[in-house]
Amino acid sequence: MFKNAFRTAATVAILATMVVALLPTNFALAGDAEFTYVAQYRQDVPVTRDTASTSEISTLDPAVASDSVSITPIENLFLGLTNYDPITGNVVSELAILPDDVTELVSEDGLTWTFTLRDDVMWMRYDPASGEATEIRPVVASDFVYGIKRACDPRLGGYYGTVAAKVIAGCDVVNLSDPEEVTDELVFGDTIQVSAPDDTTVVITLQFPASYFFSMTPMWMLRPVPQETIEEFGDDWTQPGNIVTNGPYFVAENTRGVRRTFVRNEALPADLFSGDGNIEVINQPLIEDGGTIFALYQDNQLDSTGVPTAELQAILNDPEYADQLLQVFDLAVFYFAFAHDKPPFDNVHARRAFSAVIDREAFVSQIRQNRGVPMIHFTPPGMAYAPPINEIGVGFNPDYAREQIELAGYPNCEGFPNVEIATYQGAGTWAEFWAAGAEEHLGCDPGIFQVEQLEFSVLLEVIDASTPTQDRPNAWTLGWGPDYGDANNWVNDVLSCTADNAFLRPCTEIDDLIDEAAREADPNRRAELYAEIEEGFFGPEGEHPIAPIFLRSDYVLVKPWYTGPFETDGLFGGAHWGAFSIDMAAKLAARGE
Predict the structure, then answer these.
(1) What element of type H or E holds 269?
(2) Which of 386, 413, 417, 558 has its CA 20 to 30 A from that of 161?
(3) Are residues 532 and 493 in the same domain?
(4) How many domains does the chain have?
(5) Which pLDDT score, from 0 to 100, does residue 2 have?
(6) Exposed, middle or buried, 175 (CB in 10 Å: 0-12/13-18/19+)?
(7) Full domain range(s) for residue 453
(8) pLDDT in tens, 4-13
(9) Nearest to 2 by CA among 502, 391, 367, 410
(10) How far apart are alpha carbons 483 and 481 in whole angstroms?
(11) Any alpha helices (H) in 182-256, and if so which ranges?
């Protein structure tokens, strides 16, 4: 998953694979049988979580979302087949009823998965004006068929459609088609092998017996969506007042540049809240300045916050914050990406040189203030079949970098063209550190580097593969956090030439290895293949499609009245608001209210 603000961590290894698609049939429309529920508890002060965000939600559409800012609310708006337990990280039942032995779900040949659904969950529409929610109809198997098939539709431009296309039978045929030639009949017909024999049965057929598929079943692009709502409102179907959801929370407000608010769905069966938390309202204003957010936290107006870099050492040494400071680890790897479709990084030697000038230990120490672990290959520890950390890859090697820049045709960086680097907001120092390394070790003129910091959704737009080459930067910052615990989620879903990546990396022999590793059943052979793949990407003769920098850890401040599984929730997918609690009396007392 593309990362802007990462969450917590644990070291877990889960088997997983990709998605599958389903066909919309036999909607059980509610007709005149509609029921209304009051969305908030009848009390003067609802239990409210107050946090702030620096980034906008890109989308609330499960078929389109690819970044954590969007995926977290989607996690709480839409229920899927399965879920990740917020404490253990295990795959657990959600709308699908799971047997004790999950192998009972799959056919002997490993290709066909059959899920039986519970029948007590409703599609609901929340009215922000009245504060009430209307029951529309039950969630049925055909909603999964429609949702998964829709995720395969290349006309939507969703990143995770390509992820689904790597494993679900027929999804590849649809997703790899020219969007201008794709029709609704192709998407929602019989091509994609997902079906609903009845209202409570979902059948998904894979292209091959992927060992990791079950751990993919909680993913957001496999979730059901209401076809009639999408057809009624089109692109506006996710707007407050229009959107129909089936999850623990409703959208009350999503005002760009101002705030977003969500309220608890009290009509949902209690066992589907992913915990025994008590939060009724999620209130999240949009504030670009981290210093302002920190000041609001100090004034007890926010329940949690990240720690501004400028304040970190003071907070670490301040006993007042000792019981509020948490160090959280995740499995997200940040990197510099190269545009392969334009000079100078269409040249592999230039990519190798600029990767090898990054002193990752110094970066983590100086730029990150030791909040992270240097990375010289991509798949992090904790993922199944990940190579031992930093045993594969060139890493920081100035001599090698100088050799490569000369092979690229730019000895001592002479004649090297201008390089535009796009970064996250607040990550301009990353690019400055990179440029300084190129100046020191390659002799590059610092004037050739132009750095632009962009809001996350804008960054995703400018680096998109569909953006004309001349309008794309030469390099950019990005991060990837796990969607499921397998090395396939890293090298295949991100770096392969068939992934919907912004690098525009051409296909090579490494892609044959990636495909072989995904289909391999023997664990030992899979481990060998993924080590070979990482060497082919990041070794001395590697392609270096990106330059990995670090595996992130960070510090967060949490008020004593705010409790929950901060260290474990949200490692895969989005955090679960239903797993957290607020002692509202203590919070109001601290505010003097």
Answers:
(1) none
(2) 386
(3) yes
(4) 2
(5) 63
(6) buried
(7) 329-552
(8) 433 332 333 3
(9) 502
(10) 7
(11) 184-188, 227-233
